[in-house]
């Protein structure tokens, strides 16, 4: 199992057991979708700032923050990482086999 699948599983378990004190993920689920969306906006802005500042290390950290919050949003909507992988594969296959 890769880290994305593993992290998604932890996020799902936090959603099911949202009494988990000290869990940031449980806190996000308790706050609701608007909070999750706000965090995604903030994290996306931080990705842009880190990219413009030209620090690869800072950018890696900000991308990780954004990916984590996207996974929380996906769990909120019941979208699994395999759904996104499937969508990307379908796009790749469409490019490889363009319609005649
Ligand atoms: N990968 C992450 C992860 N990435 C980022 N963050 C949190 O995202 C927050 C982003 O920082 P900010 O300063 O923007 O936000 P904040 O001020 O802490 O919070 P807000 O009041 O703005 O909501 C930090 O609190 C980080 O800890 C994460 N929190 C949890 N995980 C992973 O999720 C799993 C479950 O963690 P818990 O739910 O905390 O048990 C574990 O594997 C964790 O490693």
UniProtKB/TrEMBL annotation:
Transit peptide among keywords: no
Compartmental location: Cytoplasm
Main location: cytoplasm
GO biological process: L-histidine biosynthetic process
Reactions catalysed: 1-(5-phospho-beta-D-ribosyl)-ATP + H2O = 1-(5-phospho-beta-D-ribosyl)-5'-AMP + diphosphate + H(+)
Gene3D superfamilies in the cross-refs: MazG-like
One Gene Ontology CC term in the entry: cytoplasm
EC number: 3.6.1.31
InterPro entries: HisE (IPR008179), PRib-ATP_PPHydrolase-like (IPR021130)
Keywords: Amino-acid biosynthesis, ATP-binding, Cytoplasm, Histidine biosynthesis, Hydrolase, Nucleotide-binding
Pathway where it operates: Amino-acid biosynthesis; L-histidine biosynthesis; L-histidine from 5-phospho-alpha-D-ribose 1-diphosphate: step 2/9
GO molecular function terms listed in the Swiss-Prot or TrEMBL record: ATP binding; phosphoribosyl-ATP diphosphatase activity
NCBIfam families from the UniProt entry: histidine_hisI
UniProt cross-references to PANTHER family, sorted A to Z: HISTIDINE BIOSYNTHESIS BIFUNCTIONAL PROTEIN, HISTIDINE BIOSYNTHESIS BIFUNCTIONAL PROTEIN HISIE
Family: Belongs to the PRA-PH family.
Protein name: Phosphoribosyl-ATP pyrophosphatase
Gene transcribed to yield this protein: hisE
């Amino acid at each position: 199992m890769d880290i994305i699948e593993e992290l998604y599983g932890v996020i799902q378990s936090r959603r099911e057991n949202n009494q988990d004190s000290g869990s940031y993920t449980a806190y996000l689920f308790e706050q609701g979708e608007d909070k999750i969306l706000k965090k995604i906006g903030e994290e996306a802005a931080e990705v842009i700032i880190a990219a413009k500042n030209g620090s690869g290390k800072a950018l890696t950290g900000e991308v990780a923050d954004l990916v984590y919050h996207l996974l929380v949003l996906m769990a909120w909507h019941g979208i699994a990482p395999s759904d996104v992988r499937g969508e990307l594969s379908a796009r790749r296959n469409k490019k490889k086999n363009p319609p005649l």
